[in-house]
Specification:
By secondary structure, the chain is an alpha/beta fold. The chain folds into 2 domains: about 250 residues, FAD/NAD(P)-binding domain; about 100 residues, D-Amino Acid Oxidase, Chain A, domain 2. It has 13 helices and 19 strands. The strands form 4 sheets. Strands 6-5-14-15-16-13-17 form a 7-stranded mixed beta sheet. A 6-stranded mixed beta sheet has the order 8-2-1-12-19-18. A 3-stranded antiparallel beta sheet has the order 3-7-4. Strand 15 and strand 16 form a beta hairpin. Helix 2 packs across helix 3 and helix 9 packs antiparallel against helix 10. The longest helix has 30 residues. The termini are close together. The relative contact order is 0.19. InterPro entries: FAD-bd, FAD-dep_Monooxygenase_BioMet, FAD/NAD-bd_sf. Its cofactor is FAD.
Length: about 400
């Protein structure tokens, strides 16, 4: 089975969907509301499940070349610098860290240029039998299938899933930053270069994440609690530095090395579970379907999985409707369980009351057991295996 799809949203999930569709012989148009395709200046890590999905998209090798191994799961610290668990030279790590724009670029290169349309703000969608029409100011397009990959504030989810609640604020906020290339040479106050190999520093009510990036850059994030969303500060960089006064090196140096206007402040939201990811010939994908807290590092990875599973269903079923039923049945349980787990992890890692118990548990855990838990097959989320994408043999 082959056909024509419209993908609404040109982020990582939307581009992954377009690449997956191309792999199975479909045609697609990607509609992005921004005037240019791109990603925010932040980093992330991808786990083995996402890397396997990228392999099925045919971009795994290029993605690995753009990523950097991060030991954030193996290096857990306290604000005074003491290690609760520490990676040793030669330890394997299943995680690769990326600047979001780098992974986005890998996927963009795999999508034909004439499939991409920017500056298109979708305003409506209507379904007529086996055809779906997407409308925007000054235009419309028809297709056999529409994939809504337009993020946590999805327009198509709002238009079609009328009973779906809005995104839910999780009582947490985050500052994100990426140091410029080479900015750390000679400026980071640390006696141990491995401190920039990736780590998580856990304080009462906050944590600080470090990921190394390509081109001699470092991504950092500070996540803490907030009474309400939209609390902003005149000097965001100064505010996060103030909150982390006294935390160990290289945290102060990383913040100082980041340009003031490059510090991003976001509030953390997720979505309550939806009863379905499919409405007629419209399928939700990525954050539009299951936006989640970043605490398991699975947001982008789950959207890439979505793309592979949807394409495999389209290639393997005899009708689009059957394929969408299969996609919904396979993706909802997994993504919603992952979102629940991320929400729980986020509450625990930023709870001042739970901090001492969490630290004690990590400190007392035998190193061998800790390493087993962060191995590539150490948990069910990372063990996921993607379906194989093959081009259809029968056209219909």
């Amino acid at each position: 089975m082959s056909g024509q799809a419209i993908v609404v949203g040109g982020g990582i999930g939307g581009l992954a969907a377009a690449v997956a569709l191309r792999r199975i012989g479909w045609q697609a148009t990607v509609l992005e509301r921004a005037p240019e395709l791109g990603e925010i200046g932040a980093g992330m890590s991808q786990a083995p499940n996402a890397l396997r999905a990228l392999d099925e998209l045919g971009v795994g090798e290029r993605a690995r070349a753009a990523g950097v191994p991060t030991y954030s799961a193996g290096n857990l610290r306290l604000p005074d610098g003491r290690y609760l668990q520490r990676a040793r030279p030669g330890d394997p790590t299943p995680l690769l860290a990326f600047h979001r724009a780098d992974l986005h670029g890998v996927l963009r290169e795999a999508v034909p240029a004439d499939w991409l349309s920017t500056g298109v703000k979708v305003t409506g969608v209507r379904q007529d039998g086996d055809e779906v029409t997407v409308t925007w100011s000054g235009g419309e397009a028809r297709a056999d299938l529409v994939i809504a990959a337009d993020g946590i504030h999805s327009t198509l989810r709002r238009l079609l899933w009328l009973d779906a609640p809005p995104p839910r604020f999780l009582g947490r906020t985050a500052w994100l930053g990426v140091t410029p290339p080479g900015a750390l040479r000679g400026s980071v106050t640390t006696k141990d270069p491995d401190e920039l190999a990736g780590s998580v520093t856990m304080g009462p009510g906050a944590y600080f994440l470090i990921h190394p990036l390509s081109r001699d850059r470092v991504y950092w994030a500070c996540v803490t609690t907030a009474d309400r969303p939209d609390l902003r500060y005149e000097m965001e960089k100064a505010e996060v530095a103030r909150r982390l006064t006294g935390w160990h090196d290289p945290i102060p140096s990383l913040i100082a090395a980041t340009p003031d206007d490059a510090v991003i402040h976001i509030d953390i939201h997720d979505l309550d579970p939806l009863p379905a990811y499919v409405h007629g010939r419209v399928a939700l994908l990525g954050d539009a379907a299951h936006a989640m807290s970043p605490d398991r590092g699975q947001g982008a990875g789950q959207s890439i999985e979505d793309a592979v599973v949807l394409a495999a269903a389209l290639a393997g079923e005899t009708s689009i409707d059957a394929a969408l039923r299969r996609y919904d049945a396979e993706r909802r349980p997994r993504t919603q369980a992952t979102a629940r787990g991320a929400r729980t992890d986020g509450r625990r890692t930023t709870s001042a009351a739970a901090h001492r118990a969490l630290v004690t548990m990590i400190r007392l855990m035998p190193r061998a057991l800790w390493l087993k838990g962060i191995a590539a097959d150490g948990n069910p989320t990372w063990r996921w295996q993607p379906p194989h994408l093959t081009a259809p043999t029968v056209q219909c």
